Amino acid sequence: MQEIVQATQRRALEEIQAASDDPSLDAVRLKYLGKKGEIKGFYGQMGQLEPAQKAEAGQAVNQARQAIESALKERQTALKANAFADLDKREWLDVTAPGQRQNQGRLHPITQIQYEIEDIFKSMGFQVFDGPQLEDDYYNFEALNIPADHPARDMQDTFWLSNGRLLRTHTSSVQIRAMQKHKPPFRGISPGRVFRYEATDASHDNTFYQVEGLMIDRDISVANLIYVMKQLLREIFQKNVEVRLRPGFFPFVEPGFELDISCLICSSAGCPVCKYEGWVELLPCGAIHPNVLRSCEIDPDEFTGFAFGLGLNRLVMMRYGIDDIRHFQSGNLAFLEQF
Amino acid sequence: MKLSLDWIQTYVGELPDDPKAIGIKMTLATAEIEGLESHGSDTVYDIDNKSLTHRPDLWGHYGFAREVAAVYQRPLQALVLDPCESSGSDPLQVSIAVSENLCPRYTGLVVEGIQVGPSPEWLAQALEKVGARSVNNIVDLTNYVMFELGQPMHAFDRHKLSGDIVVRLAQPEEMIDTLDGAEHKLSEQMMVIADAEKAVAIAGVMGGANSEVSEQTTCLVLESANFHPTHVRRTAAALGIRTDSSMRFEKGLDPSQTDLAIQRFVHLLKQICPEVKVLTPILAVGVAAAEPILIATDFDYINQRLGTQLPDQQIQGILERLGFEITLNNRQLTVRVPSFRATGDISIPMDLVEEVGRVFGYDNITPIEPLIPVQPVVTQPLHAMQRLLRQVLSRDLAFVEVYNYAFVGEQLLQKSGLSSEGLHALANPLASDQNLLRSSLVPNMLKITAENLRFRKQFRLYELERVFLPELQSAEFEFERHHLCGLLCDVQWRKEGVEDAFYQSKGALEDLLAQLNLAGRLRFRPATAAEREPWCHPGRTATVWIDETAIGYLTQLHPQIAANFGIKAGVGLFNLDLSTVLTLPQAKASFAGVQKYPVVPFDVAVISDEQTLIADVEDLIRNVDQRVRQVALFDLYRGDNIGAGKKSLAFSVTFSAPDHTLQPEEVETLQNGVMQALNAAGHQVRDGG
Question: Does the CB of A207 have a partner CB in chain B at under 8 Å?
Fold first, then answer.
């Protein structure tokens, strides 16, 4: 009988090896180990054997069963491992086909640079102030030491309303309000929209955006102003930029400066942007005029300060090489989606 | 303004730098030199006029040479003048018949023995370099003195004048033909120079043709006067003529230089016309010299303000070379401002700080870190909210931010169905489509929507800006509110009956408001006719409420307004008054605990009238018991089997209690409660509910 058992075992093992998937392996299992399987059959036949033979035969059958069981297990594992062998072919995708994307929104490029600059100033301890766009003569001109007969007050430069108010021509008006509200020392900026009575063309618009700022403390000097402006510009442009100060006239500062930066386009070698001078006019600034401090009830003998203005349209235009200022107010998606 | 380097060097000698380097030095110390061009062996600088608005003394070569002398630390050559001694007689008198303010000083002189002809070469060339056309020797010489001293001059033909000269206001509608061949009608606000019969010049602006110097002229009346800067500017602007003369008067010239100009003129005239004879003394009326300005300051103040440590000597030297006279008393300075800097430019110690700083060179100042107190930066709630809204809209909800003009015009308003009544109007609009201040962000949004639809099929836009209100508000800014307008647009939503324009906009608005973390409950209610703007669809507009406060509206664009703009797409939009939102309380940060006891779900469906508001049914269920947790619509059905004018609403409801597991009989009571409440309100509960 042992020989028959061994022959069955061999056959079973061959069939297990030949099984190529789970269903055929199951058929083999049923054929040998099932209730009516061949191994079960051997146990039935053993009852007719002598006790001595019985023990031997029993051992042989058990061995055969174990061998078949472990072969089945082994084969099953092997089959499992093979299941994904050709997955690369079965489930091939063109990975260069377009992805399924969400639509993208955008911030206006001026918002982006305004927030960038606000963050730089906040990191240096400057508050952000707000004020009305519809101003009166006092905050826009008078408190800023702009005399009654100054050309800026004429119709040529300012939008006036029929009720005598005006659209602010700078956010300096906000600075006045801030200086009246806060006790020095303090420092702050006022970003926002301003208006000029100006015909529009590629480099002029009647509506534009700026950030003005000021710092008031005891003994603030021109040397301090230069230091802070240099820090600011390094943060904005993410590199050291050469600056130079030259005299500039603005009624609300004394002394007043025009701050030029080295041309970033040509590294001061000379190009159309800097008119081949190597310098670009960027930032008017100066020491706050004592009259302005006085109009905000700040004693100019005790406190001094500086103020500066930064045109945001111009900064964005410089950064991206935009050649027409009118894009900003166009509402044109072809423009806005580039930022 | 143009300046010849050779001309400047006649007063300061030859300079050690090349012309370009000189230009840069002067740009940094005095005024911006915008460009330079070679003129034979000479160089002509172009100075930015804007950098000279406060410097009347720099509108001539001699004044600029003074600056060059200070920067290069050289002496400045004195001007050669003629004493103008009279050697004849002429009865001419001059007088001023306007206030001293309008014409502080008028000086005249009569000279004869003139031979009008072409200018000598030096004169013609000098003028040509600075961009002036040569006319004849006399006119050219008046211009030469102006380009030298900055003082405009005029020459009249003596024989064309009858009687004396008077400075007076023009008569209403008085006419004058000016030298440029134009005829001008004057107003009584304008000032003229006149003889006994007629106006012969517009003061400070241009001479008249009736007294023009011609080839026959043998005798001249020279004029060198001082006029009020604003008066001249306004006259020139009103007449539309801006001349070299008016440009200089606008800056506020030194009244004491009128005599100087005449003396200089006569000195030069004698070189051109040696026969010249002076017939009168200098005929001068008005103030001779203003009270000098004295400024008390000290060296330490100047150094402190600049952040420098300049020696006393250096500070004093700079000021003196610029023409300031200094009296020292124990390091205290008394500085006398020269008359040519005293017409508004320099009056306080800070002005002297600038003088020292610029000549020393701002680039030579070492930057110093300011010592500043540590103060926390407080972000204003408005700014925090604006940033959050922009972030959510642009980053999460795929909106593109736009900026529109603050202006609207009649036509745009009409298209939008708005009236211009009560809007703030500009007194001086640039264009008729920009003559009013907008009170809503929407009209401009509709305009750019139509424009963008030419190239796009769908998009989402928003603008976050202020609008201007007709009436005074008690809020922070009297006439302004912060608004947010969001607009969604898709050509596929154009078909009638499509609801996406409204519901997608609503979803976006709900997502947005969820981020604001407001304490109150958000509700949408049908807008009443009074609440609807002209562009609001009458059946598809909701007023947006937070508890009992209306914060804006949500709507689908009215098809009529869409047609007005040529918008061929479905448009949904919302508009929020952020100034109002800002007043609402924020939700407190809190933790509700993790649900401990099981949540029991319950689905219920009702058949209701078509006009029934889903939100009302939800509220009804929610208000049955505190143990009702969530109520959400999961199915909406209309069909023949439930009848016309009806709709079936199915809600999934959850029950739970915070402190125990709901017992079966408790759940049954709640279910019955919900169904009874619904039935009682006229909603027919469907079987199996």
Answer: yes
